[in-house]
Specification:
The structure is a single chain. Strand 4 (about 30-40) and strand 5 form a beta hairpin. It is built from no helices and 11 strands. By secondary structure, it is mainly β.
Length: about 130
């Protein structure tokens, strides 16, 4: 089973950018669809972005579409979330997740995922 470790979180001013990384262990990274979710204090975890196992399909939450980009580097066993034009409401802990699948699909719902990282804090100051 793959293990995940997020990095790249931090404090940035509104309008700025951050790139989150999620490094996966193991040799079967290409068998996993990957997702990014976030959870703000006092709120439920919500979907941010997802990418299929080969990277050919992606999906985004409406609130981030056009500003966030999910990508993956299979050779590096890493998935990225490039976040631009950040808003204070993006402040949250960001989690990456992995789902073992045979399908070329980007899963947008949390219950689909088998494995989760520990999360990385993103704070946007106004």
């Amino acid at each position: 089973q793959v293990q995940l470790a997020e990095s790249g979180g931090g404090l940035v001013q509104a309008g700025g950018s951050l790139r989150l990384s999620c490094a996966a262990s193991g040799r079967t990274f290409g068998r996993y669809a990957m997702g990014w979710f976030r959870q703000a204090a006092g709120k439920e975890r919500e979907f941010v972005a997802a990418i299929s196992r080969s990277g050919g399909n992606t999906d985004y939450a409406v609130s981030v579409k056009g500003r966030f980009t999910v990508s993956r580097d299979i050779a590096k066993n890493t998935v990225y979330l490039q976040m631009n034009t950040l808003k204070p409401e993006a402040t949250a802990v960001y989690y990456c997740a992995a789902k073992s699948t045979s399908y070329e699909y980007a899963y947008a719902y949390a219950r689909a995922y088998d494995t989760w990282g520990q999360g990385t804090q993103v704070t946007i100051s106004s």
